[in-house]
Amino acid sequence: MATTIIQPGEIEPLAGKAPWLRLPERKTIFARREKRCQALAKDHPLKNYLLFMAGVARAQQESLNGYDKTALPDANRLHICRQQGIPPLAVQNWRRDPSWHEVLRIMIEKVRDTAEPATADSLDRLLAGGGPAFEAMADGLLTGNYAGMDLAAAPLVGAALQVYWVHMATSLGRESFAGSAAPTFCPVCSSPPLASIVHSGGIENGQRYLHCSLCAAEWHMVRVKCSNCQSTKEIAYHGIEGDSGAIKAETCDECQTYLKIMSMERDPDIDPTVDDLATLPLDLLMDQAGFFRCSFSFFLIPAEEVAA
Amino acid sequence: MQVTRRQFCKICAAGLGGSSLGLMGYSPGEVLAQTNSFKLTRATETRSTCPYCSVSCGLLIYSMGDRAKNARSEIIHIEGDPDNPVNRGTLCPKGAGLLDMIQSPNRLNYPEVREPGSNGWKRISWDEAFTRIAKHMKADRDENFVTENSAGLKVNRWPTVGVLASSSSINEVGYISHKVLRSLGVVTIDTQARI
Questions:
Q1: Does residue A228 share a domain with residue A163?
Q2: Given A172, A174, A261, B110, which is the most exposed site by the fewest CB atoms within 10 A?
Q3: What ipTM does this complex have?
Q4: Which pTM value belongs to this model?
């Protein structure tokens, strides 16, 4: 939160413009997440879950490292999407390549032994259903329709979809994407954000990005603005008294929702996915304060959703 | 039509058991116990403009306090607004010290007057202050108003009063300042934004 006082010679790099889109680092995205899970698991009330998630993240990184070529949007489709402001890998209309099924199978194999019995049973049932069961669950997860879904197996399906989408997004590269007509959704895959990240250092210092819940792309949005209804009135920041202040809930009185906002300046090791789980008490307090959560995480799917 | 609002969800203490977390076999009991010991704080970030010079750097002003409880909110921090195209999050040393100016014990919070012959400042009301300033201005204008120049041309000048306008004024304030002052005949009008 410190104010930047620029020194002689520093003004030139600052004169550039921060990128509007940041794609995840393919080589380290899930490895970083695994490390963060292990670091936060110490003395945490959700220790066992965070350690299980560390194993999931490790399996995700291994799958991503070895991901074969997969179908991508061609130049023509990219061009049309750019012209019309449509995310090229939009979850609603991108035809998924079955290659992600294998990712899911291998991931389940790797983490099944570390899972709680309830999770293991669900994963066995999911595996027995095969491809059609995977696709049905993916459809539900990606369109926000998870009524009747086996929620104990859903996080693993989400994890495999993350690997698939990160693979596609990083294979295409930043130049393939253009600003979306709907700035409250990811311009790569049109998923809702998981959290806001305020970056620290360099040209992105103090800039807020929305972090995609599926493909981990980050797109820019000005600060002090509701990421859901885009109102700039009555925005407040709720935090837990006495903590580091790195993670707060940005609330909007207009639409009564909140999105967590995470400051990399206060904690440079933040991983939005893990830190979102680790700050579950903040969600519970925000619920008591009467705000709805307007973000999505595959790793904390509530029993019921509230229609927008 | 573009759907721009997102789906809401509710993550609440009673619902955790039925969430993916609970169904996976992880007990939320400890989290719930921990949550009960936590207290929520509320802060706001407000956009503003630095009052000092004509660059008019964008500011983010951080305040603590719960307006709902009618408590007085307190400014805790000020920094450059990273989204402002003028300063992109930076501030000069003077601007970076704004918090001290706002919280300075020497800051003038009300009108004061130092009467001729007295050795101290006396607090007066806004009404008194406005009346006093208006009377002084009227007396000065009556005394020094110039209706014609040496060539006998009508000029209607009030050359003995000058005005310096704020650099934080918006266009409309500038327009009104100009209209009012010119209609009184004020010749010397300048603005801090020119410096």
A1: no
A2: B110
A3: 0.90
A4: 0.89
